[in-house]
């Protein structure tokens, strides 16, 4: 449940009420902003514990979502870095070494084409 729970104290406006003498009416309310507007809902008696638990759970879930967002960004960074590293192996020096090695492998396996070319 989105919002925050707090005690709202106010005067009711009735003349001669105890609130005019400083004893304000206290109510537990749920305050939440939606699209720039703040809504205020009085929490019915007996629902305070349930509302507080739901509000706390919502805040936990929001923190989890923020963390997931960070992890997602981190994952993309790692994937990008990995791709960059893969391309980095294609520098000329490395490429020649790899080519020599594969030629060596072919020679060991006895590929006829290579031998034929070498005799010419
Ligand atoms: Zn009053």
From TrEMBL:
Residues 89-120 are annotated as: Disordered. Residues 89-106 have a biased composition (Basic and acidic residues). Residues 3-44 form the DUF6788 domain. Residues 107-120 have a biased composition (Basic residues). It holds the Pfam family DUF6788. It comes from the Bacteria. This is DUF6788 family protein. It comes from candidate division CSSED10-310 bacterium.
């Amino acid at each position: 449940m989105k919002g925050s729970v707090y005690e709202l104290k106010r005067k009711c406006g009735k003349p001669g009420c105890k609130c005019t003498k400083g004893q304000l009416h206290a109510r537990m309310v749920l305050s939440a902003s939606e699209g720039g507007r703040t809504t205020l809902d009085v929490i019915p008696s007996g629902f305070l514990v349930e509302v507080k638990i739901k509000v706390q759970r919502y805040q936990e879930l929001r923190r989890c979502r923020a963390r997931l967002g960070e992890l997602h960004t981190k994952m993309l960074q790692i994937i990008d870095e990995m791709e960059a590293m893969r391309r980095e192996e294609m520098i000329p020096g490395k490429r020649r070494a790899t080519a020599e090695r594969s030629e060596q492998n072919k020679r060991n396996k006895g590929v006829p084409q290579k031998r034929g070319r070498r005799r010419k």
